[in-house]
């Protein structure tokens, strides 16, 4: 199977857009990602998937902490910044929660201690133990078919 066909098939799954953030002793780093999910309610665990060639991989291993920031529909420019899609340089301001940088005004910032990791294929799955949350109201930034989208509530039709 061709890689582009597989990628196009995976693009049929609409996702939210997140920024994964971490901080080492020398720098704060972030990357745009949509490979994120909850794993367990008790204990509270989430997972993220990072390409084994991504610069962020070693940063998370070094820091042992990361945050998942779920972006609002007003934050596409931040996603583009961390995805390397913006030509002009811009500054992103962070807040800190438990020493981990988080994106200001994101819908949710989920701060985690690294619980464990698994190398699977060309990615590493990081399991994070949730230690702190920050929530705000708003609508999510979504991604579908290789494009940013805005959330639109679906009408529920009840069948008789």
Automatic annotation (TrEMBL):
InterPro entries in UniProt: Flavin_Rdtase-like_dom, NADH-dep_flavin_reductase, Split_barrel_FMN-bd
A GO term for molecular function: FMN binding
Keyword Oxidoreductase: yes
Top-level taxonomic group: Bacteria
Keywords assigned by UniProt, alphabetized: Oxidoreductase
Domain Flavin reductase like: 10-150
PANTHER family noted in UniProt: FLAVIN REDUCTASE, FMN REDUCTASE (NADH) RUTF
Protein's recorded name: Flavin oxidoreductase
Source organism per UniProt: Virgibacillus oceani
